[in-house]
Design a protein that fits this description.
Layout (H helix, E strand, L loop, with lengths): L4 E14 L2 E13 L3 H16 L6 H15 L5 H15 L12 E2 L9 E6 L6 E7 L4 E6 L3 E19 L11 E11 L4 E4 L4 E19 L11 E3 L10 E6 L4
Helix pairs in contact: 1-2, 2-3
The chain binds fe (ii) ion (FE2).
């Protein structure tokens, strides 16, 4: 077999990693030669997951395994490719211990009070960005579409109710009328559990009575669109309970 050779191309960028939250980061796009990407990805994913299957890992150990694995898998943005990417990262988080707490948290402005929902940046992820979020009791993260990146949310403390939805049709961001979305997941995220958000999925959070902390491991896959974050208003009651169809409309914020 031909020897694999990798070249890393540095890319400096300002990244809006969460609605209204921008960090400057340096990422690396790996260019591979020789061994096929699928073969390399499968081998590394298996080794990384086996490596982490029998012991707890620190955040630095997580990064040491997750960064090269994510770099290998991130190029396949197909539905199944993103599924493998998100599940592989989520699997590595399952043994994470002693997650660092950022020195600085910024208000997201999404809560009813300024302090309700804060996010801090945890450096070291590549190609993903790690955000540490804190929700006060009952605080909300307004439902929004992830239209240029995917996310693994990981619970650290407390409990947060997460709802995920997909569009029943292609999203039309200019549409003023009501449209339909389909709830695919209704999950109580607690310490150690994970929620996956591939490209173009909607997610929204509401913290329980004790509040919650967690990570969003977010990866940009497409250029950021010009428009503001596509928040949604979603009907409280489904129009079809069995299939989880809800009426929704855009609720853009400036
Ligand atoms: Fe989000």
């Amino acid at each position: 077999m031909k020897q694999n050779s990798n070249t890393e191309l540095p890319i400096d960028e300002e990244v809006e990693v969460s609605p209204g939250f921008i960090v400057e980061r340096r990422s690396f796009m790996a260019v591979f030669g020789g061994m096929s990407l699928a073969m390399l990805s499968g081998t590394i994913a298996k080794a990384a997951i086996e490596e982490s299957s029998d012991k707890n890992i620190s955040f630095d150990q997580f990064l040491a395994q997750a960064n090269p694995l994510a770099q290998k898998l991130v190029g396949d943005t197909s539905i199944s490719g993103q599924e493998l990417y998100l599940r592989s990262i989520a699997a590595l988080t399952s043994k994470l211990h002693n997650i660092p707490v950022p020195t600085k948290f910024n208000n997201t402005g999404q809560g009813k009070k300024a302090e309700d929902y804060k996010i801090g940046f945890v450096p070291g992820g590549d190609p993903f960005t790690v955000l540490h979020w804190r929700l006060e009791p009952g605080a909300i993260c307004t439902p929004h579409v992830h239209e240029y990146g995917n996310v693994v949310s990981v619970g650290i403390e407390g409990a947060v109710r997460i709802s995920n939805y997909v569009s029943t049709d292609k999203f039309d961001y200019e549409k003023n009328e009501t449209f339909q979305i389909k709830k695919t997941v209704d999950q109580l995220l607690t310490a150690g559990s994970a929620n996956l958000v591939p490209l173009n999925m909607i997610h929204g959070f509401q913290a329980g009575p004790d509040g919650a902390r967690g990570l969003d491991i977010t990866t940009r896959l497409l250029p950021k669109p010009e428009r503001s974050t596509p928040y949604l208003s979603i009907a409280n009651k489904a129009t079809d309970e069995f299939t989880g169809i809800y009426d929704a409309s855009w609720a853009y914020k400036s």
